[in-house]
Structure formats: C-alpha cells, structure tokens
User: What shape does this take?
Amino acid sequence: MTNEQKMKIAAMRDDGYSYVDIANEIGVSEGTVKSYCRRNGLMRKRTNAEKQDIRHCLFCGKEVIQNPGRKEKKFCSDTCRSKYWNKHLAEVNRKSMRTYECAYCHKPFKAYESAGRKYCCHECYIEDRFGGEYR
Ligand SMILES: [Zn+2]
Ligand SMILES: [Zn+2]
Assistant: This one.
C-alpha cells in the first residue's frame, strides 16, 4: 500500500467508517484494511468518542452534549437540574420515614425521622400531656 492509502485508512477509520467502506474507497481488499488497522491500532475513535460525549439529561432524558475537558453535564438545563434535585430530595425524605409507636395509644404511625414525633396525632399528645386535667 502507498503512504497515501495508509493515511486515508487512518483518516476514514477516525471518521468511523467500516473496513468494507475503506476497502472499497481505496481499492484494496477488506482483509488488507483489517490487518493494517489491527497492526496499527486504528480503532473507530470518533464513534467511541461520540458515545462518551453524549449524556442524557437525568430529568427529561434529552441529549446533553458535553464540552470536552469540562466537568460532566448531567442535565440539559438548570430547570431540569433543580427539578431533578427537588424530586430526589423528596425521595430521600420519604426513605427516612420510620414507624413509631404512639406514646399514648400505642398505635403504630409513620413519621419523618427528623420530625421526632412521639404521638400518632395531636389528640394523643394532648391526652398524654394534659389528660385528666382538662377533661
Ligand atoms: Zn432536561
Ligand atoms: Zn395515638
């Protein structure tokens, strides 16, 4: 093969062409192109790079084009980012829900861990604290 052909292989490989396409283009057999590429480590660079460069917005699923060398962008817009985090926080809060036993009626009830509730309802709280006194 001529240097020109070799350069063409490298360039086409870079653009993501298949062995057959390259073979047809420069007029050599597919096997020649294949073994030349293998020997010289000419992979389909661009298609792989393309795959890496496109993320899908974590909120709406729209494609997010990445800026090479910059921090990975996970969202297509600031709106999607804040919506996503609001939703995410709501999920985190839901997970921190625990089942407690009411200190007055001993019925189980669910509450956020951070709320620190001891009673299933306000009535139980009043009854337990002031029961009798205000009856
Ligand atoms: Zn989005
Ligand atoms: Zn209760």
Remarks:
- The beta strands are 54-56, 63-65, 97-101, 108-112.
- The chain has a mean pLDDT of 85.
